[in-house]
UniProtKB/TrEMBL annotation:
Its EC number is 2.8.1.8. Binds 2 [4Fe-4S] clusters per subunit. One cluster is coordinated with 3 cysteines and an exchangeable S-adenosyl-L-methionine. This is Lipoyl synthase. Its cofactor is [4Fe-4S] cluster. It catalyses: [[Fe-S] cluster scaffold protein carrying a second [4Fe-4S](2+) cluster] + N(6)-octanoyl-L-lysyl-[protein] + 2 oxidized [2Fe-2S]-[ferredoxin] + 2 S-adenosyl-L-methionine + 4 H(+) = [[Fe-S] cluster scaffold protein] + N(6)-[(R)-dihydrolipoyl]-L-lysyl-[protein] + 4 Fe(3+) + 2 hydrogen sulfide + 2 5'-deoxyadenosine + 2 L-methionine + 2 reduced [2Fe-2S]-[ferredoxin]. One of its GO terms (biological process) is protein lipoylation. Pathway: Protein modification; protein lipoylation via endogenous pathway; protein N(6)-(lipoyl)lysine from octanoyl-[acyl-carrier-protein]: step 2/2. One of its GO terms (cellular component) is cytoplasm. It comes from the Bacteria. The gene is lipA.
Length: 300
């Protein structure tokens, strides 16, 4: 009798977990209209960078349509390689000492009542670009004394003298984004430190500034981690917090772990206010500069 030949049983490979599908509440309209076209024209003519474009902001149509924009100074190449950010990473070559004048003139031409200014990280510069920061704010105030300003400043890597210069120009709001909870820093902001960013906010508050920060949701954070982050921010003097949904800019960037429902954004807003924050802007499409003009008058 022939021996029975037993063949190994080949198990089918486990299917990869399905990626979460983008929900309907994240749909946005394409930018259109004469006001948007005018801002587009001014940005191009003055050779300006905006985080609206470099960061693929979903609110660009709404904000530019209202004649506002967030300007990005010190070039459009960043020395950091954060896993969430669409801004190009590399060795910057641009360092234009005339940029403050051009930004100030563009803001005046646009006639904006509230301007937001941000920048790439310039870790290779001894002063982290602080002198350009200072002059941009000062010259904008000189040309448009009625314009209020928010500066969204980068991590200065504990160069506190640079921080002092960055926040001394007379801006009404100083923002520095935490971006995520402490446990995800190595993954999301590998060249930053959670405690160092908290200290930067604390020092900014101690200097007498109105403080603001932002956190992206949907990267894998838990509710308890979000509560801790809000408590840490309150303990370090934060006044205003923005919460929005992370959206993967390209396939090379970190994937979305979860699309957060608007109800949970509303819950986090209530929690943040209950824990001592003065103002919380929370929603799937919220970004750092979204409704920024409202944050100037928040009682602190």
């Amino acid at each position: 009798m022939d021996e029975l030949l037993l063949l190994p049983v080949i198990q089918p490979e486990a299917a990869a977990p399905a990626k979460p599908r983008k929900p309907d509440w994240l749909r946005v309209k394409l930018p259109v209209g004469p006001a948007y076209a005018n801002v587009r024209k001014l940005v191009d003519e003055h050779k300006l960078h905006t985080i609206c474009e470099s960061g693929n902001c979903p609110n660009m149509g709404e904000c530019w349509g209202a004649g506002t924009a967030t300007f990005m100074i010190l070039g459009n190449v960043c020395t950091r390689s954060c896993s969430f950010c669409a801004v190009a990473t590399g060795r910057p070559t641009e360092y234009d000492l005339d940029e403050p004048r051009r930004v100030a003139e563009a803001i005046k031409l646009m006639g904006v009542k509230h301007a937001v200014i941000t920048s790439v990280n310039r870790d290779e510069l001894k002063d982290r670009g602080a002198s350009v920061w200072y002059e941009t704010v000062v010259q904008t105030k000189q040309l448009s004394p009625g314009t209020t300003i928010e500066t969204l400043i980068p991590d200065v890597k504990a160069n506190w003298a640079a921080l002092d210069t960055m926040i001394a120009g007379g801006q009404e709001v100083v923002s520095h984004n935490m971006e995520t909870v402490g446990s995800l820093y190595r993954l999301v902001r590998p060249q930053a430190k959670y405690d160092r960013s908290l200290e930067q906010i604390r020092r900014t508050k101690d200097a007498g500034c109105r403080t603001k920060s932002g956190i992206m949701l949907g990267l894998g954070e838990t509710k308890d981690e979000m509560y801790k982050a809000m408590d840490d921010l309150v303990a370090n003097g934060l006044d205003i917090l923005t919460l929005g949904q992370y959206l993967q800019p390209t396939k090379r960037h970190i994937e979305v772990a979860e699309f957060i429902h608007p109800d949970l954004f509303a819950h986090y807003k209530e929690e943040g206010l209950a824990r001592g924050l003065k103002y919380v802007e929370s929603g799937p499409l919220v970004r750092s500069s979204y409704h920024a003009e409202r944050h100037v008058n928040v009682p602190i």
